[in-house]
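Sample pair:
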Amino acid sequence: MVGHDDQRAPLHYSCRTVTAAPTEMNPMQQAVVDALGKSPDWSPLPRNVVEDVRTHLNEQLADIAARFSKEDPLWVSKRLLTTIHGCEAHHVASKNSFEWTPAVSESSARYEMFGGAIVLGTKADLTLGTADQKVIIDVKSGGLHASHREDLRFYALVEALRSGMAPRRLATYSLAAARADVEDVSEGVLQAAVRRVVHGVRTIVAVELDGREPTKRPAVHCRWCPLRESCVEGAAFLSREPLDEDDEI
């Protein structure tokens, strides 16, 4: 037993901070950082640019909004814009074969116009950063195509309208190519997205509500189009080998 008069030597503890050397990134990791990183001289788009875009979009769709309502709205998604700007006949034929109920209900960004008569909705694969410097990323298993950039411009437009602040950068990353196609968000990018939305919505109204004959534009979607057995143009396209992929970037 240790008595009360037992004198023990005091215990002394010490610690030291060990700073690990930074891990060197491999070339692929470095390429991603370079593609998505923020440059020192970057500054966000002024809010008045976003408000001008909002005003312009509203003016361009005001006459069409009356054709829809909050109870029966027009849902504008990436897929809808892609199909209507591709082959209109394919768009009409496949309209009821793939629909969300309600449409685009899981969107990560959503913007309602005209009291909910027209709704723009997106669902990005990945977003990084806060609203004033957000990077929106779409991941593709295949190659990179020009249409992917148009998709992300639509994402940028919806995010800007929803939050009042434009995202900083857009990136489509191809797993097959192991590289990213990157675009900074500018006023021109947002205005290009507005033009595409307006033209797409007006075309939808023309072919779906007003009965205009849809045009045909054969492309890769002919492989799974409901009209592939009866469409002469589609059959001619599919007979070619290899299939054209001339929009790859």
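The longest strand covers residues 135-140.
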